[in-house]
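To close the chapter, one final illustration. This time we ask the reader to focus less on the individual chains and more on the assembly as a whole: which components sit near each other, and how the overall shape emerges from the parts.
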Amino acid sequence: MTPDTASDTVLQARGLNVQYGTSSLFGRRPFHAVRDVSLQLGRGEILAVIGESGSGKTSMLRAMAGLVPASGSVMIEGREMIGQSGRALRALRGRVGLMFQDPVGSLSPRLTVRHAVTEPFRIHGVKDRDLDAECARLLRMVGLPADFAGRYPHQLSGGQARRVGVARALALDPSVILADEPTAGLDVSVQGELLNLLRGLQDRLGISMLIITHNLHVVRHIADRIAIALDGEIVEQGDNGRILTAPEHPFTRALLAANLHVAR
Amino acid sequence: MTAPLLEIRDLRVDYMGEGGPVPALHGVDLTIAPGETLGIVGESGCGKSTLISAILRLMAANARVSGGSIRFDGRDMLALPAREMRLMRGKDISIVFQDPMQTHNPVIPIGRQLIDIQFREPLSRREKYARAVAMLEQVELSEPERHMRQYPFELSGGMRQRLAIAMAMLCRPRLLIADEPTTALDATLEIQILDKLRDLQRDTGCAVIFISHHLGAVARLCERVMVMYRGHVVEEGRLAPIFAAPAHAYTRALMECDPAALPERRRILPSITDEMRRSFL
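The assembled structure is written out below.
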């Protein structure tokens, strides 16, 4: 098998477009949130999409997870997701684990960690598993004690809630994890621990990840490849070292210049 | 030396839990001179928010000051009647919160909020309006007259944080507390907001307490820094020497964890281990 055959590409988006209808006084006007985006994610690779608020990053991710109507093409392990519905769409979605922004807000305050972590099994109608054992296995994978299963979201710290989010994303043994701002709002030390966890999962399970963030410092350390989003388009993508040391697009250069650090 | 604007001595705050009081601040000392900029850094749970809620006397219902003193401009803040405290908030001491989406009243137009907040000022409505418009111009909201008629939801996150700063600075406070004001913003917006805060601070001469876990942001704005860990002040002083050569093990660990500070790309990032934590206090 040559390295560039389809089986080494886990997720491939081509000409992806997302439009939202917005109503105004003059009727419905479509808002083009994602324009003609093409991205490729190799097996075991971490791709970071950077951009500012409103650049369409989250819409891209949702389209690749089959959660918003989109046009173009999204291939998951060689199978087309766009245009699928029902059982076929659900099967493809199961190959993609999702980590939402704001993990405490995305967990129901009235349901336990056990419920949140095992929900993907219920959604996908997996009935032949011992859910308690699955929950314990998933919590172990993300480094949380088994007794966390009985906790409620308000009893979790920010870092613990993110780990629960990772455990949930891993439930169905996906080949890809799509993570929306996984470290936003975390303390730097907790952020480091979470990124090390993601890196460890990638090493151990060969899982691929697409991470959306506006934190360039995180990207520098964790991403194999980087794509830059601006106004719904990807204006530049390439290897980590190339993007950070020799950015071509003026917006990438502006983004690099804007990241604050403590001068040493 | 000038008289301090804010002087906190040996402040102790407990939270009342089911199993008795849980200490959140273990004797915090803090002095700020007029016009000084102080950054407070530390991770979640270090007591940053408890400290500012004690200064503003906006503590949680189960929090209790169990010792120490807070003096603002020579006045004993802990003994101040509630009515006088209310008059001081927003006038002498004001605050910008972390989340610009939840700071403003969603059902009242921006203009009315900016006029109402000047209720203590002996000005006519027309003068208050003019002052509000001038303040929106100062924070570079491009069409102030139009924004006065808008509702907060019509503005983006960055614009809303500018609005929050305008509101906090409108009554010319002598102390501005900014609690993680840029955490929810993009890197480019963060710089713009920090620089705006710095310009306003220089123009008005107000003192600033800037709370953040982003060390780079603190370094851009503040002359002094205070590092907190589990309710203790572990290090305090001029920012440049502390960031160049931190004396306390926690400060060193915190700085080493900052991915921005690592010169080389790393597969595994530094973090603070439990073993390290045992050595901090």
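The longest helix of chain B spans residues 187-204. Residues 137 and 143 of chain B are 8 Å apart (CA to CA). With these observations in hand, you are ready for the problems at the end of the chapter.
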